[in-house]
Amino acid sequence: MNKCTVSTDDISFWTGFYKNDDPITWASEKAYLDMNRTMTFRESDSGKTEKEKRAIQEKRYDYRDKVTNIISDRIAQSKEKSDDFDTWHKETCNMIIDYYGKTLDDGQLILVCRKGKERSVKGTTLSVGQAQKWLNMTLKYLWLLDRLNLLEGDSSSFVCKYQFCFHIPLDSYIIRYVKREPKSNKCKDFPEANGLLKPYSIEGLSGSQWSRIDDYERYLKYQKAIRDDLSSQGKLPIEWELEHWHKAVAYYDELSNRTFAHGRTTSLLRAEQVCPKPTIL
């Protein structure tokens, strides 16, 4: 593999507390924590006993472990197939979404959005946005472990084979940063130095609510545009994300005029859009 251009500090930040566990299990469980704040489970029957409620709680972890197994199996199977990465990624996301949909159809649990608005009572499942975050963060952590020579076997082979195509994990920080949403009505406030040749946004996505992305084809079109942009500059998307994520967080905090560390949040600044508009994909 090529020499890593990401700082050792960045790698340490993302791989802290790794104790030579099973790498895919570690990566998937860590990725689940990055995604699950957008998920809420509630009992479909408020009259359940405490024991029954605890059993339901345990099911959440069973679901997580099942998805970890899906990802592990998909990585192992990739060496026997010649599918391109985007095909592999779409199929894996669909398997994660389908698993949650079928499992939650038993009526024991209902998945609700962060603001408490149910998508549906039966057949509720994860969105494309939630599935991509889980999967992409898992791959990001595996890529970092490989950079530290802590990965071997199928996982290392998978990273070596597909690393140039890995998708950027989408969150609110990255979406706003890539879009170059201005902090005011002056173009000088807009993050020109974000390493991309032009701004991009996802068609049909309101704001930066990554967990509400429901159209995989629009999602993929967006990822391909960013990947092509960075590839034309000789950059790996996953390395670009690692280099710029902290900058995106700082930009988002300033844009939103918020200080998360102290729990203080004010409304987003509303600026007249006089700067170049992003390419909507």
Primary descriptors:
two-stranded antiparallel sheet; two-stranded parallel sheet; mainly alpha; 2 domains; 281 residues; 4 strands
Summed up, the helix count is: 9
SSE arrangement, N to C: HHEHHEHHHEHHE
Let me know the number of strands: 4
What is the typical, i.e. mean, pLDDT?
77
- Radius of gyration, in Å, reads 20 Å
Could you tell me how far the N terminus lies from the C terminus, measured between alpha carbons in angstroms?
32 Å
Structural class by sheet pairing and helices: mainly alpha
The percentage of residues in β strands lies in: under 5%
Global outline:
globular
- Write out the strand line-up for the largest beta sheet, numbering strands in chain order: 1-2
Largest sheet entry: 2 strands, antiparallel
Low-confidence stretches: 113-123, 184-188, 258-277
Whole-number tally of structural domains? 2
Helix share bin = 40-55%
Structural account:
The chain is mainly α. The chain folds into 2 domains: 10-165, no CATH class; 168-281, no CATH class. Helices cover 51% and strands 4% of the residues. It has 9 helices and 4 strands. The protein has a two-stranded antiparallel ribbon. Helix 2 crosses helix 3, helix 2 (23-35) packs across helix 5 (128-147) and helix 7 packs across helix 9. The longest helix has 28 residues, at 50-77. It starts with 7 loop residues before the first helix and ends with a strand. Residues 113-123, 184-188 and 258-277 have low confidence and may be disordered.
Please summarize what this structure is.
Helices cover 51% and strands 4% of the residues. It has 281 residues and is mainly alpha-helical.
